[in-house]
Amino acid sequence: AIVADHAKIKSLAFKTEQRKVDRTEVEFDSERLNKIIGTELTEKEQKNYLNSLYFMTDDKVEVPSHRSDVDQLNDLAEEITRMIGYDNIAPKALALPVKAKKIEANFEELCRDYLVNNGFFEVVNFPFNDNQDDSAISVDNPLDKQRSKMRVCITKSIKENVVFNQNRQKDSIKLFEFSDIYTKDGNEKKLAVIVSGRTNKNFKEFNAQLDYSYLKGLIKTIFSELLGKELNFELDQSQNYDLYEKVYCNEDHIGRIGKLSKEFVGSKTKTPVFSFEIATNNLRLPTKKQSRISDYPASYRDLSFSLDNHQNLEKLATLIRKYKESSELMVDSFVFDLFESKKQNLLKVGYRFKFQALENNITDEETEAVMNALIKESLQIDGINIEGL
After folding, report:
1. pLDDT at position 10, please?
2. Tell me, what's the pLDDT at 332?
3. Fewer CB near the terminus (10 Å): N or C of the chain?
4. Strand 172-183 versus strand 121-122 pairing type
5. Selected residue with higher pLDDT from 8 and 270
6. Nearest by Cα to 194 from 117, 265, 104, 107
């Protein structure tokens, strides 16, 4: 009566319809379920767990109508896992196939580290310039006329870095660049190193200048320590160089080294600039070798050589290296003393030789036989004398 007094609705009826809902079915796979869960349950045990949750099991699993969230095998695995209890499943170490990456050192990486450790800075330049070399590749749509060709060498680019730093009062410049050089004949990897100014900013090297001997010693040390190879140099002449030498490794011409001309550098300062540029495509690190250590005592001999010039120093080093490589008893040789007097035009170098055998004690007669042969051959070089003989 109260509703009738306050509302217009006089009667209300409800009508319901029950539509048939298709049950979701999931393919049953006992083996895959065990892999997902990490257990070794039998098929019967798996189905018992599912049946207890009102899943109808046969070849396929029929999902209850109120479980619309279950539609794949992973969902069934989760239901079984909850019934077992996560803490009741024994943990297993995750076994993933691991492919170990083989890291091999290469010349470029080791050389870069060596140069950086010796105070050099790496630079990266545009691969374009305005060179007029016939082998240069022309660019169809250059940024400007100064970048209309692919560069055929790094030296022209890296000397611009030197000029930039010299014009800003940098008094110790040591730069290098690795780059691929593309020409009409192909491409090759190159390394360019350039130096100018003071050797370093410390009390020992402040007054020493970066010069040709420094740069030549640097490239020889790189090849000796990293590659175990010796370089040969051939004096020549070339445009843009006041001093120029070709660089050879294993009789292959690999590059050049020299003092750049002031006209080519184009700097406001008068500080000389030295550079070398070499091809590195065929430079491979030597295979590591293991050598047996002798249990027998070693014998040492010292010789003091007097030389007229630095060229004889290289000849003597080559001769001693030949004896070291050919003799089974001479296992090491090195310079332990060096004295130079420019006033007297005198150069003295002291070498120490180590003799040792793997299978027995060496005798004085064996040692002296090698030393006498070395002394005889070294004295045949003009301008070399041995102190005390």
Report:
1. 64
2. 93
3. N
4. parallel
5. 270
6. 265
Q: How far apart are CA 350 and CA 373, in angstroms?
A: 18
Q: Are residues 193 and 78 in the same domain?
A: no
Q: From its phi and psi, is residue 257 left (phi > 0), alpha (psi between -120 and 50) or beta?
A: beta
**CATH number, domain with residue 356:** 3.30.70.380
Number of CB atoms found within 10 A of residue 56's CB: 14
Interatomic CA distance for residues 196 and 173, integer angstroms: 5
**How many other CB atoms are there within 10 angstroms of residue 18's CB atom?**
5
Is 97 inside a domain boundary? Answer: no
Give the pLDDT band (50/70/90) at residue 122. very high
Helix (H) or strand (E) holding 6: helix 2-6
Instruction: Dig out the tokens for 333 from the structure.
Output: 């040789």
| CA pair distance 267, 163, nearest whole angstrom | 5
Higher pLDDT, 171 or 18: 171
How far is the C-alpha of 265 from the C-alpha of 59, rounded, in Å? 85
Reply yes or no on whether the pLDDT at 18 is more than 70: no
Which residue, 346, 349, 348, 345, is CA-closest to 333?
Answer: 349
Name the residue range of residue 115's domain.
107-279
Beta bridge partners of 183: 186
Model's pTM, two decimal places?
0.59
| The two three-digit tokens of residue 240, written as one number | 């843009």
Distance CA 246, CA 235 (A): 6
User: Per residue in 174-188, is it b (16+ CB within 10 Å) or e — as a string?
Assistant: bbbbbbebbbeeeee
- What does pLDDT average to over the chain? 88
Torsions phi, psi of 268, nearest 5?
-75, -25
With a CB cutoff of 8 Å and minimum separation 6, the contacts of 128 are: 139, 142, 143, 147, 148, 149, 150, 151
| 3-class secondary-structure state, position 236 | strand
Length of the chain as a residue count: 389
- Which residue in 195, 367, 354 sits closest to 276, CA to CA? 195
Each residue's pLDDT tens digit, 339-361: 888 777 788 999 999 999 999 99
pLDDT in tens, 134-172: 778 888 887 777 778 888 889 999 999 999 999 998 989
In a domain, 2, yes or no: no
